[in-house]
Request: fold
Amino acid sequence: MTYLVGYSAHKEDRGALELACQLARADSDSIHAVTVVPQGWPTAVAGDADREFEEWAAQEGAACAEEAQRYLTEAHPDIPSQTSWVTGRSVPQALLDAAERLEATLIVVGSGDDVPSGRIDLTSKTSRLLHSAGLPMAVAPRAYRAGAPITRATLAFRGDDEAWSLLDRVAEIAQRTGSSLRLVTFAIKRPAMLTARVSGAETMVMEAWRERATAEQHEAVQHLLDMGFAKDNVEAVVAIGRSFGDAMDTLEWGRGDVMVVGSSSTQKLATVFLGSNSSKIVKNSPVPVIVVP
Reply:
């Protein structure tokens, strides 16, 4: 299997390459880094400007591919890797076309520059990819460095049919790679209205919801144990906070963690479409995120 990495040397951020190598090492896969450079004009431009532009773009693409290959060979010599460059008017579409051509099973991208190191920023191009891809996508935090092997997958678990289907897929990969699995159900406490504070209705609703979520998690954990997971390799947590950031902060995170979320249950097409809650989970995650359609 091949993981496709969207790479741009101009960002000076090799987080996507690092994450791809970390994931490939866990599952004995290879990676292919692709750089997209601008495509020339469809019609001839006076003064040979179009030819000069195409020559410049080709030089840029070749230089980026060479730099990526040099870095991969020096930093991750144990990972089978290739690099290439393509032209395209749309970076997301060019990456999707490359993924189809290479029969990639995962697309890996980095974050934008508008967040501190270690956080995730979905750029406009990444968002378009997430709305169009028909295969899983992994997003690396800004300036990510893979200092440890993948040891645990944290799955955002809703308890619906889509979450159960995703659970089986993630469990199979976790078993194959020897990773542990943590189920997390997020609950966001909204500011209560005065009448609710007086009557205690909000507390009653939250407790009833927590009991239901705990019961669903218990059923999922038993399912994992029946699949052959050891008790020490399965965990279930209900994370409660005033925001997704607060809820994330209640959890313990390690260098070998990845977060896994499913696409929106309201999207019927087989694409990675992020709903509102999934998008907030991705943006607040302190570890790499894999989004699965």
Notes: The longest strand covers residues 30-38. Residues 266-273 have pLDDT under 50 and may be disordered. Residues 151 and 179 are 5 Å apart (CA to CA).
